[in-house]
Protein: protein acetyllysine N-acetyltransferase
Amino acid sequence: MDTAATLDAVAEELAEARRVLFITGAGISADSGLPTYRGVGGLYEEDLTAEGFSIEEALSGPMLHQHPQITWKYLAQIERTCRDARPNRAHQVIADLERRGTAVTVFTQNIDGLHRQAGSSDVIEIHGRLHHLHCTRCSYEVEVDSFSDLELPPACPRCNALVRPRVVLFGESLPQMEMEQLLRTLDAGPDMVFSIGTSSLFPYVAEPVLWASEQGITTVEINPGTTPVSPFADHHITQGAAATLEALWQRLR
Ligand SMILES: [Zn+2]
Structure:
């Protein structure tokens, strides 16, 4: 099937779908100019950071506890690159679909908050959100627009302990509540499952697609490359996320 015919077929099913799960990764935010953790690692000429650690070590849970100033330095660099990013057509179409009346759940690996910014209301942020800060000791938490006014590493205004973003660093476990939310979404029985802009290397990102495929639920992958879930997807559209979602939206109208 050529791309236009695939888009026609996917749009036809999407128009009738009551519940849709979108699984998204860095590729969906690439059209907003955003790097990933590893992409930010790629900003460095050398394999190691100035401190002699890999970027994965610098952005790890153990490093945050031992040398918070190092982890915060790189968190702040990531934050600077994505501070002014805005949702692109892919985020917007997913939010528009919800406004159109479809029960949409987004399960994202991205920490940029762009799905919420676009207006999606049911968003499971499995790796957390960069601008959501919380104290490592007490219950203090705050949502910020920028890290530019923070003194790094930031201290809690209530108890003076270390404040950190609510993101999953390397070596940390996934948030239980978000995993349970995903299971509830799968239990509800989506009519379609989309995998967009993710390399699907993590099992918790690939498994919902494999599960849907076994259940006979329509699966759609939007990714210029081939991934571990590609052989299981009913439809694989090898184009960028923003262009593909816009093309689907045009067919829905
Ligand atoms: Zn505190």
In short: Residues 39-45 have pLDDT under 50 and may be disordered. The pocket of zinc ion is lined by residues 135, 137-138, 140, 156, 158-159, 161 (CB under 6 Å).
